[in-house]
Amino acid sequence: MDHIELSLTQSLDHCIKCNICTSACPVAAVTDAFPGPKYVGPQAQRFRHEGQPVPDASVDYCSGCRVCNQVCPTGVKIAELNARARAQIVAERGLPFRNWLVARAGLVGRMSCGPHAPLLNFGLRLAPARWAVEKVIGIHRKAPLPASSTYTFRAWFRKHRAPTTARRQVAFFHGCATNFYEPHVGKAAIAVLEHNGFEVLLPKQQCCGLPLISNGDFKAATSAHEANVQALVSYARQGIPIVGTSTSCTLTLKEEAPEILALHSEDVQAVAAGTYDIFEFLRSLAERGELKTDFRPIERHLPYHQPCQYRAHRLGSPAMDVLSLIPGLVLEESHAECCGIAGTYGLKQEKYQIGMDVGAKLFAMVKRSGSDLALCDSETCRWQITHGTGVASKHPIEILAEAYGLEL
Amino acid sequence: MNYETIVIGAGLSGMMAALGRAERGERVMVLAKGHGSTHWAAGCLDLLAEAEDPLGAINQLVQAKPAHPYALAGVAALEQALTRVRGVGEAAGYPLVGNAGRNLLMPTALGALRPTAFVPATMVNGEARQLGDGRPTLIVGLHELRDFFPPLIAANLRAQGYPAEGVYLELPPVERSHDFSPVVVARLFERPAFRAAIGRQLAVLVRKGGYARVGLPAVLGLYNAVEVVRELQALTGALIFEIPTLPTSVPGMRLFQAFEQALTKAGGRIQIGGWVLRGEGSGSHLHAVFSEAASREQRHMARRWVLATGGIMGGGLRAEHTGVVNETALGLPVRTPSGRSDWFQARFLDEAGHPVFRAGIAVDAQLRPLDAADQIVYTNVAVVGSALADCDPIREGCLEGIALATGFAAGQL
Fold it and tell me: What ipTM, to 2 d.p.?
């Protein structure tokens, strides 16, 4: 038993059965299929023993949003228990092809990104094609799939000419979404970092492994994380911060992969300790008075949703803190637990409606704001918000780049 | 980022202190490990249980026990805090009713009568003096809702001389088939069709039984409970009241929401999920605290701090098997009965209470923490609520009273 496993097991005994987690759980609020974090976490865990069959498969309906951990007054690691319980089910019963596929964000991204992207995007907008995908694979016909990019972020970066005035270095972890679907998010991040005097380095990297973890494919997730650690550890050891715009990727590097997959080598710890979400990084600059504040006013009132995966960093609201420095900009916080997509959860045929019901509160808030733009730090959440509201969505780094007046 | 005041703990005392400071124009953040005491408690305000006139008794108590939190905060702070908390409820459409000079006696989920000074308007029709007017009361529940047994409640009320009967209602058709926690049922009561169906059943029962009052579990909606009560009264012609349930407490959640609204409106921020592990100071000045976060601690800076982490139940104090009681966030010195053998009375239900529950942090008149030699540990920290020494809030029945009074005082210092 590794020390994380020990602390997970021991945290069971801190559960006083107050049901605060179940009361806050956005999934249990909208469906019976998930009886709530207390039951599938600290309670069912007492019946999970090595070599014995899994007592209850409803843990598969946990979306992994980690709201339970956040509200628990006694510090039970419920989300981690659930993630490991799901992997136990996968180990016992195998991984369905659909989950195998959606868990491989890097592979899917690589196949769909390129000059053929417009054709693919067009094809995936056709109802019969989506119907077929639902029937054959099990991805819901209405689920928000991202539009692939005609070029990768890495290809753009290779041609990008950086200013020569940089004083310090950061390493950028772009993640699959920025590389294959939304290179503009990465461009905005590079522009903001360079504007603040950083030379941006681009380490070799692959998918952070989060979709593999949340689909219970721990073997593949472990090799993904080990490969990333190998590629990133030299930066961490040199004290070069590893900064990412995808908040769930950075959380995976910092905590989810080490804790859930039980990887605790010194290299893993060094990478975890050296990784930052971009707004966490920018906020720490601002706190030290090192963030440039030559902002143009942006006279706008925008809805902002902090993704559950960002709240799981347990850092408060770094994007709100930094964007509040922009004159004129007013952000309205969603106060919604989750958008419902939870990475790949809301794509699945049997879970799509749950995801939409979970997101209903957020969608209503965005629509009520009357804004034509919503801000959110996580890509799948942005796609879900746009899907649920028809309102365009951007990463907060794009607004920051705009406020600096940076050409992208 | 840079806050003038950071309040550690999101219970009543912390929210009260944060609101006070935010309303003075400060940049304020509440930093809390999770949801807590509000969600566990009945959502009523206990000032002092063992007195008909709590305010009168508190006036005597502060003379007799100068180290008691009420004495430190002062009776004036308590009275102003009560005015403020009622304003918070009022603004959220959730009035708190009662009188600091006379305790109400409210039925519990066991049918016992519990003294408390203020209750939400949704509960007040269940007050025992009203139940004793000779007209019968009906207690209803749902089989699906756990830990709420109307026949048991009614039997215990009858045993105390109050005419009452208890029955179960039929659950109106809903898409759910299991797990009816108080919060799940409260969400159902947000639906007009659901409460109309409940109202129809109640109307029939009231007509047949001639009940003057109907008591239901405190699950009548999360956001519009006063409206739900009004609607059910109109449908049945009887007075409706809520009885607190086991946690998670819906009335407690409503009270938290009311404070959350008020604090947000005043410009304050709340960070839930930030478990404070330690502080960092120089001399008698605390300049940073560190909260647990992914892969490394988060550092928080503020000019002034309020420690509102609760007592042993809330997690602010931790009793170790080695015989020490620790203050968990900042490592402040705790006043504790000397050895572990002195923690407890010989009898479990001893009327004097167990000494360990009086453990806590000693403070000066400005609520600043003191060490064993009565020296101020940090001049820019105020300690509020159940973390304070010389008080056993649950036994004395003053949990909310001291939380509000000391929280209010820390908000004004």
Answer: 0.93
